[in-house]
Amino acid sequence: VGVRARVSVHHSRGSMSYSIIDRDAGPDPNYKPPPKGAYKGKYEECYKFYNEYNKCQEKNRIGRLFGACSSFKAAMDKCNIDQLKMRRKRAAKEAKKFNDKFDAMQKAMKDQEGKR
Known about the structure:
This protein has 116 residues and is an alpha+beta fold. The protein contains two helices and two strands.
């Protein structure tokens, strides 16, 4: 639950001071919790690892503090890293294609200017 606080500003001879009037002004009326089971990972391909990790966390309330779920976490992290590497490679290929087209276009423009 989001917490709001009211703040008052006091001006005295050119200096400003802030004081908190009410530490807890009640719950934030605009706060909406995420839906239960919402995927918080980066890549949809890693959802199954995220799900398994969450199930392990739910089952092992105490054991998770001692590494009971670390294998699931490692699998999820590896999946995220692999997806990131794959997307970077794809982006690099697309950037190279774009740069090649751009260079060809610039060369064609210079050739046309040279013929004039």
